[in-house]
């Protein structure tokens, strides 16, 4: 068989294999094709909050004179124009609502005002400076900007518009109720403490509430000595916002600290398997590498509540904790 004919045979074999694989696909194979998946549009909220006088129309045509006007209130929705969820910021959406005196009528609403206000009672920590709004809509931003602080929120705006998530109505002492809109740099459900707190062992100093999650190397970890601090507030995950006696403000987590009840030793345990290096034995992270089986020098030991034994050792990464084999 010459080379040219051989290439033709190989090509025919490959084509046959491809055809055979396609024919042998299960009948429902299209269900697994991400391109063929059906798009599920967001659901129109069953009720929406009107923030201003809103004209009512008998048909979705604002060139006509409105039938009446509604004052700010919550209304029940019935329907909306096709693909209402695809509207861009600044565009309006026709929504059919139910009225108690004239039946079903239409309103022409800004797309970023589709949602409902629901009461909440929570304290919110503003991690970054936050602009204030008169309504939960980006078009209502004022010139007022709040510095990072903790505020009380009495309502939340629930909306199918994704970028309006994290929109809360907060209380201010000079402007009354205002809104923070589309602000992801917040912590909700803060517990106000305003009490002394005793840090009994070396504790991780966190400039931000999530510093521990972003430590890249042992040298990034800053430990502070035992001291008394003033705890201002606490997150729902148990992270404290504190002020030191010299006025420094930072965050701490009591579990990101050296444990109580540590015993001084001078031992050389043998690690029989690969062992993770922990900054603290009280938390599964942060960790900084793995030691291969070897003999190490331990200068402290501690046993946790589950009875697991830990040794504090000197390593190339600094002083780390390792769990000792049983």
What topology does this entry show?
Layout: H1 3-23, E1 47-50, E2 54-56, E3 68-70, E4 73-80, E5 92-99, E6 103-110, E7 116-126, E8 130-133, E9 141-146, E10 150-158, E11 168-172, E12 176-180, E13 186-187, E14 191-199, E15 203-204, E16 223-224, E17 227-234, E18 240-243, E19 249-252, E20 263-267, E21 270-271, E22 275-278, E23 287-291, E24 294-295, E25 298-303, E26 309-315, E27 318-323
Antiparallel strand pairs: 1-4, 2-3, 4-5, 5-6, 7-10, 7-13, 8-9, 10-11, 11-12, 14-17, 15-16, 17-18, 18-19, 20-25, 21-24, 22-23, 25-26, 26-27
Task: Summarize it.
It is built from 1 helix and 27 strands.
Describe the structure.
It contains 1 helix and 27 strands. With 326 residues, it is mainly beta. The protein folds into 5 domains: 29 residues; 66 residues, SH3 type barrels (Roll), CATH 2.30.30; 72 residues, Roll (SH3 type barrels); 62 residues, Roll (SH3 type barrels); 61 residues. It has a 5-stranded antiparallel beta sheet, with no helix packed on it. The chain is elongated and about 90 Å long. The termini are far apart. The N terminus is likely disordered.
CATH architecture of the largest domain: Roll
Number of helices: 1
Q: What is the general shape?
A: elongated
CATH top level label of the largest domain: Mainly Beta
Give the topology string: H per helix, E per strand.
HEEEEEEEEEEEEEEEEEEEEEEEEEEE
Number of strands: 27
- Helix/strand-derived class? mainly beta
Question: Over the alpha carbons, how many angstroms does the gyration radius reach?
Answer: 31 Å
The proportion of residues in beta strands is: 35-45%
Q: Please give the largest β-sheet.
A: 5 strands, antiparallel
CATH-derived topology of the largest domain: SH3 type barrels
Strand order within the widest beta sheet: 12-11-10-7-13
């Amino acid at each position: 068989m010459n080379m040219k004919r051989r290439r033709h045979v190989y090509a025919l074999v490959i084509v046959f294999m491809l055809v055979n694989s396609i024919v042998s696909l299960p009948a429902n194979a299209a269900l697994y094709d991400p391109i063929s998946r059906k798009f599920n549009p967001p659901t129109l909220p069953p009720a929406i909050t009107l923030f201003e006088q809103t004209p009512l129309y008998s048909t979705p045509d604002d060139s006509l004179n409105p039938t009446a006007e509604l004052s700010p209130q919550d209304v029940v929705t019935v329907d909306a124009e096709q693909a209402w969820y695809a509207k861009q910021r600044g565009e309006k959406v026709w929504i059919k609502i139910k009225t108690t005196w004239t039946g079903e009528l239409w309103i022409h609403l800004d797309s970023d005002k589709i949602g409902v206000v629901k009461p909440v009672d929570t304290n919110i920590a503003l991690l970054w400076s936050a602009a204030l709004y008169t309504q939960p809509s980006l078009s209502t931003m004022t010139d007022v900007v709040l510095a990072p602080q903790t505020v009380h929120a009495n309502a939340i705006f629930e909306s199918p518009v994704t970028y309006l998530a994290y929109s809360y109505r907060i209380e201010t002492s000079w402007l009354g109720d205002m809104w923070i809109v589309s602000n992801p740099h917040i912590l909700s459900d803060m517990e106000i403490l305003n009490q002394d707190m005793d840090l009994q062992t070396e504790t991780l100093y966190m400039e931000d509430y999530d510093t521990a999650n972003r430590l890249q190397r042992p040298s990034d970890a800053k430990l502070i000595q035992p001291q008394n601090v003033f705890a201002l507030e606490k997150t729902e995950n148990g992270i404290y916002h504190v002020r030191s006696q010299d006025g420094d403000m930072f965050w701490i987590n009591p579990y990101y600290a050296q444990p109580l009840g540590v015993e001084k030793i001078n031992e050389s345990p043998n690690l029989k398997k690969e062992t993770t290096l922990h900054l603290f034995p009280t938390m599964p992270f942060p960790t900084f590498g793995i030691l291969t089986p070897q003999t190490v020098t331990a200068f402290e030991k501690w046993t946790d509540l589950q009875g697991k034994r830990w040794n504090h050792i000197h390593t190339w990464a600094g002083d780390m904790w390792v769990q000792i084999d049983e």
